[in-house]
Specification:
6 strands, 168 residues, alpha/beta
Length: 168
């Protein structure tokens, strides 16, 4: 549904959790950020991997929980940032050198990995970070692999509380 550069290429990796429950997931950070501003919802950055077993476990075991799914669908804009999407080349004009990765960023995967390391100080997947429409973190810590459903719900609720407290 989104006429954006990477969407078609990334749709093939859309997790079953999204199609099964009608969960909308963005694959382009800028597009997701714009949607978060427009919809007045916090942004959930899902640093993930195509071949990430624990990412699929979190989606299948935690995201699929009815209380988690309700929050994800109604209260968040989710952007899945695949750090191993190395088959999706960036346009020449968007390529750059990353000090953090010590290499030229030429693919969507490189760009996502660089963002995770430089802006969020993490490099494992899955890793979830939450921000508002101005890219301000809504939780100091990211949320890594932890299949405890109640703990994840608590984290989501705290993020929503922080987001609501920022509203003018």
């Amino acid at each position: 549904p989104h006429p954006v550069k990477y969407v078609e290429r990334m749709k093939i990796y859309e997790p079953e959790i999204a199609t099964k429950y009608g969960l909308e997931i963005y694959y382009d950070y800028d597009e997701a950020l714009a949607a978060a501003k427009q919809l007045h919802k916090p942004l959930m950055l899902d640093f993930t991997g195509i071949n990430c077993v624990n990412c699929r476990k979190m989606e299948a075991e935690v995201w699929s929980d009815p209380e988690v799914m309700k929050r994800l669908k109604n209260d968040f804009v989710i952007v899945s940032l695949y750090v191993d999407a190395t088959n999706v080349d960036l346009p020449e004009g968007e390529q750059y050198y990353s000090k953090a990765l010590d290499k030229k960023v030429e693919t969507l995967g490189d760009k996502n990995a660089d963002m995770q390391v430089t802006q969020y100080g993490a490099n494992s997947q899955p890793y979830y970070f939450f921000a508002d429409g101005n890219e301000k973190k809504l939780a100091d810590e990211g949320y890594g692999y932890d299949p405890d459903i109640e703990k994840f719900i608590h984290h989501l609720d705290n993020v929503l509380k922080a987001y609501d407290q920022e509203k003018p």
